[in-house]
């Protein structure tokens, strides 16, 4: 929004400021120059008016569709909610929204029925106002799940209703426990054209039972996500509230063309591993206008774990994250890793607002991860009371099994961080690269970390880069001019 306004202003001011420059230059204009100026202005305004009214212009591109040039919208990744020919309610499949009756079979019946409608114009399943208790169910293609205002899907408290599925090949095992993992509450594999939206209805994972199993060490298999889509494309998730996921909330993995926008994602601030949105080995992902508060990273980009992620070699790329705000007291606003073994590149993060958090921007990797992180651009970041606003860190010996390769070192190259203001922070940037795998081409411009003691110094290890306009003054490793080519 703010950015749009700025661009508009610049466009409308252009002819004016041009004029101002002319007048300033010719301080004592002669008649001839004034005439010339008058002629110039006349030509200019004529051009402007012909441009806006000329019928020629309308005719130049006869069949060219009007594509709005709106840079700050995810529309280019996957369009607005497509119309579906068949529209039915969960009540048509025997659903009961009393908060007590199980709707697991109703949802599964609905999806089974709608599976056949993909070729016939697609289908939309409406969840009306009410409390709809359910176990896990799968989605289908050319399908919309629509939660009307006041609709609440409540996750079953019976772990058996979250059956065990195969681990992800890029992880080799469940992320938390060996072997398989609990399926997500809402799940999809190999789908095309799926929309999950509504009038700010809620999907509530009722995750407390799972967090307690994690805390009291009785968890047998890795916890399920609130929503996981695998091997899918053309996905839109919007205008809903997701609450209390057992584990990472939204997990697109091996997906492409994914839009996640206008979402509210909430979990208690101490709920373990309740990341907001984790694009994983996915490409063309656009995340915008979300409010997230949770017990782990608001948004974290991943791409597989150690030797399994290296073998699968499925990167996360072409990702936009913008206008995200929120808080996570123990983790970071925006994170990369620590699982990044398939590679992560071409990521743009902008207009982030993070407060009362442990870290603002964090890159996590480690020995054994392999893979690479490249071409990451982060700008316009506002933070308040964030302990370590910018942090690159090594993991803490977090490997899938004994077979990880100590020689698999990640390559981190080309990280741009600009226009950052952090108020009431505790620490200057902490940049810890990896021995024999120095992070290179790290560029920071216009970064102000305010409210720390004036003697606070950067902590830099195995990192090299370029800084300009940063406060407090950077470590020597970040005053390297030769790597400034990455800085625009
Ligand atoms: C949902 O899909 C998974 C695989 O993605 C499968 O294992 C499971 O049986 C499916 N569940 C239902 C109810 O069809
Ligand atoms: C989003 O939800 C709000 C609140 O229910 C509703 O008024 C609005 O129309 C929805 N927007 C879209 C694009 O569906
Ligand atoms: C949607 O609901 C959540 C939770 O009640 C609320 O915080 C949020 O402001 C609502 N969003 C919109 C767009 O109304
Ligand atoms: C651990 O938490 C789960 C979920 O709340 C509970 O069912 C179980 O009894 C607890 N186990 C122990 C040993 O406290
Ligand atoms: C980077 O990703 C954006 C989308 O986020 C895409 O438009 C652009 O073409 C990509 N750049 C390259 C060099 O692939
Ligand atoms: C990163 O960007 C540079 C310069 O645009 C390009 O040459 C390089 O191929 C990119 N690397 C990756 C992994 O995208
Ligand atoms: C520096 O960053 C701040 C915060 O994003 C921004 O308000 C300011 O305009 C930037 N200054 C320059 C010269 O770009
Ligand atoms: C920063 O700390 C000062 C002093 O404690 C306080 O007055 C101010 O409101 C704080 N600002 C923010 C943005 O937290
Ligand atoms: C940057 O400078 C450091 C010394 O501070 C040096 O070790 C490193 O090789 C330089 N990096 C580049 C890319 O030139
Ligand atoms: C590095 O850049 C600074 C400022 O841009 C300049 O003053 C200095 O001479 C440069 N150092 C080298 C070795 O080029």
UniProtKB/TrEMBL annotation:
Q: Which GO terms describe its biological process?
A: carbohydrate metabolic process
Q: Which GO terms describe its molecular function?
A: polygalacturonase activity
Highest rank taxon of the organism: Eukaryota
Task: Write the signal peptide boundaries.
Answer: none
UniProt keywords, alphabetically: Cell wall, Glycosidase, Hydrolase, Membrane, Secreted, Transmembrane, Transmembrane helix
Q: What is its main location?
A: secreted
Pfam families xrefs: Glyco_hydro_28 (PF00295)
What transmembrane ranges does the database entry give?
31-49
Protein's cellular compartments: Secreted, Cell wall
SMART domains, per database record: PbH1 (SM00710)
Checking PANTHER family in the record gives:
PECTIN LYASE-LIKE SUPERFAMILY PROTEIN, PECTIN LYASE-RELATED
Q: Specify the protein name.
A: Glyco_hydro_28 domain-containing protein
């Amino acid at each position: 929004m703010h950015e749009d306004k700025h661009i508009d202003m610049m466009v409308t001011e252009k002819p004016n400021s041009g004029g101002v420059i002319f007048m300033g230059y010719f301080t004592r204009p002669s008649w001839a120059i004034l005439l010339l100026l008058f002629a110039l202005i006349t030509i200019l305004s004529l051009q402007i008016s012909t441009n806006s009214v000329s019928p020629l212009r309308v005719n130049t591109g006869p069949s060219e569709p009007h594509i709005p040039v709106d840079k700050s919208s995810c529309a280019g990744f996957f369009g607005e909610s497509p119309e579906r020919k068949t529209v039915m309610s969960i009540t048509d499949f025997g659903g009961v929204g009393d908060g007590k009756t199980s709707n697991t079979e109703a949802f599964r019946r609905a999806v089974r029925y709608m599976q056949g409608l993909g070729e016939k114009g697609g289908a939309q399943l409406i969840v009306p106002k009410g409390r709809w208790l359910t176990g896990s169910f799968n989605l289908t293609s050319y399908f919309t799940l629509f939660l009307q205002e006041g609709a609440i899907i409540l996750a079953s408290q019976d772990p058996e209703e979250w059956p065990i599925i195969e681990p992800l090949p890029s992880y080799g095992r469940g992320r938390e426990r060996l072997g398989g993992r609990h399926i997500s509450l809402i799940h999809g594999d190999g789908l095309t054209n799926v929309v999950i939206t509504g009038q700010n209805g809620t999907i509530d994972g009722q995750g407390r039972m799972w967090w307690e199993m994690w805390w009291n060490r009785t968890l047998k298999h890795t916890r399920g996500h609130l929503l996981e889509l695998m091997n899918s494309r053309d996905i839109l998730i919007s205008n809903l509230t997701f609450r209390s996921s057992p584990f990472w909330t939204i997990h697109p993995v091996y997906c492409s063309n994914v839009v996640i926008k206008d979402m509210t994602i909430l979990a208690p601030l101490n709920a373990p591993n309740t990341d907001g949105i984790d694009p994983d080995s996915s490409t063309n992902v656009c995340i915008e206008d979300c409010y997230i508060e949770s017990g782990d990273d608001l948004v974290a980009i991943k791409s597989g774990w150690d030797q399994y992620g290296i073998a699968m070699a499925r990167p996360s790329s072409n990702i936009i994250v913008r206008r995200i705000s929120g808080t996570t007291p123990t983790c970071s606003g925006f994170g990369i890793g620590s699982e990044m073994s398939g590679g992560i590149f071409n990521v743009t993060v902008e207009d982030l607002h993070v407060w009362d958090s442990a870290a603002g921007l964090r890159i996590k990797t480690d020995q054994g991860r392999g893979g690479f992180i490249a071409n990451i651009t982060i700008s316009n970041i506002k933070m308040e009371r964030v302990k370590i606003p910018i942090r690159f860190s090594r993991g803490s010996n977090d490997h899938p099994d004994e077979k990880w390769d100590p020689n698999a070192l990640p390559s981190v190259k080309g990280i741009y961080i600009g226009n950052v203001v952090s108020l009431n922070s505790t620490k200057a940037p902490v940049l810890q690269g990896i021995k024999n795998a120095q992070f290179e081409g790290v560029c920071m411009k216009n970064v102000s970390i305010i409210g720390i003691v004036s003697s606070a110094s950067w902590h830099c290890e195995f990192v090299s880069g370029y800084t300009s306009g940063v406060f407090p003054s950077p470590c020597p490793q970040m005053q390297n001019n030769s790597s400034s080519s990455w800085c625009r």
